[in-house]
Amino acid sequence: VRECNNIPLSQPQQGEAMLANFKPRGYSECIVTVGGEERVSRKPTAAMRCMCPLYDPNRQLWIELAPLSMPRINHGVLSAEGFLFVFGGQDENKQTLSSGEKYDPDANTWTALPPMNEPRHNFGIVEIDGMLYILGGEDGEKELISMECYDIYSKTWTKQPDLTMV
């Protein structure tokens, strides 16, 4: 787990995040699947997960990280400053979430974060210099053009200018 800490995650899809440097070059590449759904078949029902398995393709080994505090789908995941951050998504009742969690690989624990200003799922998320920008998405009723920013050092949210298009 430690060798994967400082590698940024690419854009997540359905709660899965792949490390951006996932090219067979060295020992530090890995894939972390955070929450999501577990489909047994193509039926419309699926079991939601709190699980967070990490896969090391070089050793061909799965390692089970500590589970999320609650199952999530359609959430955002990224890596910044040696931690994994998870925001928003939907719960088991398809309610849109504003909550977030931070994973500490040294302690193998998730910690609750201050909630976003707006609940959202299926949004974009990017990190720039310790600032986590949350862009667009949906709130369960409509598409969002809002943007907000989480400062990982001050642990505060700041509303940003709206997007010019959805």
UniProtKB/TrEMBL annotation:
Highest taxon of source: Eukaryota
Cell membrane found in the keyword field: no
Annotated keywords: Kelch repeat
Entries under Gene3D superfamilies matching the protein: Kelch-type beta propeller
Pfam families: Kelch_1
Name of the featured protein: Gigaxonin
Native species: Mustela putorius furo
